Structure to design on (92 residues):
């Protein structure tokens, strides 16, 4: 599993936050995805993302934040690839 910097860890935590955060920036999400998987921007502006064994195609959000459906899809992908935020006090 890749070592995540603090910024990536914060983004991962925001993606897994309950209730769902509506303030997860696309720019931060894209940076995290590039750190843990492969991201290919397609000619139509969509992004083909592979994390572990899963691949999804995402559209760039219309505003700066990702939507709830993308968060749900990303949670599934991260979980299946073994990425979950550290529990408080377990950051080692």
């Amino acid at each position: 599993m890749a070592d995540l910097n603090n910024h990536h860890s914060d983004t991962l935590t925001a993606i897994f936050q309950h209730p769902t955060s509506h303030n997860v920036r696309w720019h931060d999400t894209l940076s995290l995805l590039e750190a843990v998987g492969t991201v290919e921007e397609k000619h139509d502006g969509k992004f083909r993302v592979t994390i572990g064994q899963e691949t999804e195609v995402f559209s760039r959000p219309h505003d700066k934040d990702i939507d709830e459906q993308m968060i749900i899809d990303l949670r599934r992908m991260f979980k299946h690839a073994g990425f979950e935020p550290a529990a408080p006090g377990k950051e080692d």
User: Anything to note?
Assistant: The first strand starts at residue 38 and ends at 41. The chain has a mean pLDDT of 91.
